[in-house]
Amino acid sequence: MGVVGGRPPVRPLTILCVSKLTDVPKRILIGRALRSDRLGETLLPKRIALPVFASDPLSSVAYAPGEVLLVLSIAGVSAYHFSPWIAVAVVVLMFTVVASYRQNVHAYPSGGGDYEVATTNLGPKAGLTVASALLVDYVLTVAVSISSGIENLGSAIPFVVEHKVLCAVAVILLLTVMNLRGVKESGKLFAIPTYVFVTGVFLMIAWGAFRGLVLDDTMRAPTADYEIKPEHQGLAGFALVFLLLRAFSSGCAALTGVEAISNGVPAFRKPKSRNAASTLTLMGALAVTMFCGIIALAMVTKVRMAEYPGKDLFHDGVPVGADYVQDPVISQVAEAVFGHGSLLFMILAAATALVLFLAANTAYNGFPLLGSILAQDRYLPRQLHTRGDRLAFSNGIVLLAGAAALLVVIYGADSTRLIQLYIVGVFVSFTLSQIGMVRHWNRHLASEKDPNKRRHMIRSRAINTFGAFFTGLVLVVVLVTKFTHGAWVALLGMCIFYVTMTAIRRHYDRVAEEIAAPETPDDDSMRPSRVHSIVLVSKIHRPTLRALAYAKLMRSNTLEALSINVDPAETKALKEEWERRGITVPLKVLDSPYREITRPIIEYVKNLRRESPRDVVSVVIPEYVVGHWYEHLLHNQSALRLKGRLLFTPGVMVTSVPYQLDSSEAAKKRARRRSEWNAPGAVRRGPVEKPRRTKEPSSKKG
Predict the structure, then answer these.
(1) Which of helix, strand or coil describes residue 559?
(2) By CB neighbour count within 10 A (0-12 exposed, 13-18 middle, 19+ buried), where does 621 fall?
(3) Which of 43, 134, 516, 609 has most Cβ atoms within 10 angstroms of its Cβ?
(4) In terms of Cα–Cα distance, which of 56, 393, 365 is closest to 186?
(5) How many domains does the chain have?
(6) 410 with 536, same domain?
(7) Same domain, yes or no, for 538 and 420?
(8) Are residues 110 and 197 in the same domain?
(9) How much is the pTM?
(10) What pLDDT, in 10s, does the model give residues 369-403?
(11) Cα separation of 147 and 135, whole Å?
């Protein structure tokens, strides 16, 4: 019968060898595994939670003002005087969203955020729409933040700009490793550059205001003497309104990431809701102040930005050319205020690049947590609900990194192109979440009798109602102004996520229905009438005798040995030795004229099932275990193929009976050493005593 009985279990030992090779570098990069009961130690104080969850909206002030000026440049420099009014509109929207989300974190502190609000109050479809929007937005947050950070860093290091895609992917990998080490540990690393950036921006605003108002200095950006060739001169009426709306929608990028705090309430220390609400308020105040300050300084220093700088920016009447690298607004303002090459300028440039990289950390916390909740609700694979060695949702972190890296490669790490896909998902979730909160308060007001609580609820409902109206209006503006510029890609991504998650849920529901336990477990229809055991035999050796002994202990209704005749001489020798040893188990031999092993066994088992549909067939396969990878290559894979085929045969149970050869001791030692490194799963298994080594007497048979 070939060597079905002698095939080593390749898959487990192969995994063991690969795990051993990757275990040491994994521990160096990620750290030692943490016990599940240490989850409370990973909770964040407010000073760490701010850079972890608010780095995205705080860092967006580095590129949001530039996006406003880029859009306005279509009408020329004359349209720049609208930028303060656009900033005011963005500020009003920011305060509205922050006030609305303060209601969310108090009402729904479990961490579901917008998804939980929409699902509870508007239904599963609305919740799934919000989840799809947020997942797309989190991926775009990583891609946009890192691409923008690369561009900012490129203003000081030309090599980075020349290799944008490679550098962006490398930063994504670095952030992935840092987040795999755990939320709290990565948060401590991210806190310093975030606070340096915030301090630097406030210092720049204060020093710029002092120079301009007190010292009456003239501060000029590097592009102050440049001219902009407008694509459309003298816009008026509807065209001007449309341009302003588009500029406003680009400035709304400053609001991205606001929802992350409501999704991350469980990561805060107690009292969770209060700490989350305080962090949300502080984040809003900081972001608004920095955004308005940079816009004001950009106007004072006469920053010039163009969507296509190579042909639309002119210096002394000559286009700057395709080789011109357009620095971000914040870099130009910092150069005008602090002076090019000054220490403060270099510190702010470095901090800006770092905080833009670290802004992606908002998504690295939000995406895995939301993915875990969706996996728990059976909308995503269950693996996303499992915590890794460092108690982070590792699978979600890796999935996010892969999707963001793909986007960066496709769009060439160009933040201007990527940002057109941005904020659509944010405002979809904003709007549906606020509508859900309005229904939440309506439901509670219908049953609440306490006057004080009713006044609080009515005030909260008014805030959420205004938030729903305002964010819904902005959503319409964003869709209208950005659809042809790339927003359709984000909408397509949302549809793909929605359809995929719906299909996953249907699969899990179908499986749950199929395997659901009956109301009467003792129902005769669930109990097989008989068990027919088959032991596969190639030749008589210790693994075969052990498998036969094990099969006898199963006390099946019928038991037989089965061999495939591919070599008449070997089959004849097998029958003779079988009779000589007086083995009581009957031996059945199947002819195989085409020297196949798997198919005759499958057909035989299927015939048994057809003859007695209520019987269970138990197939016992003797296997011996080797310890070195090269030994696997010396044996065929017939048992593996056979198991794969039998797996899809109803009413068939497959049992492997291992026999450990001397070389398997090497694998056993590797496994023992590996367990000392707190291998994955050790947290769940708990401490395990080392087994005593026993050696089987050489005279023992089977």
Answers:
(1) strand
(2) buried
(3) 134
(4) 365
(5) 2
(6) no
(7) no
(8) yes
(9) 0.67
(10) 888 888 888 898 887 876 665 556 778 888 998 99
(11) 19
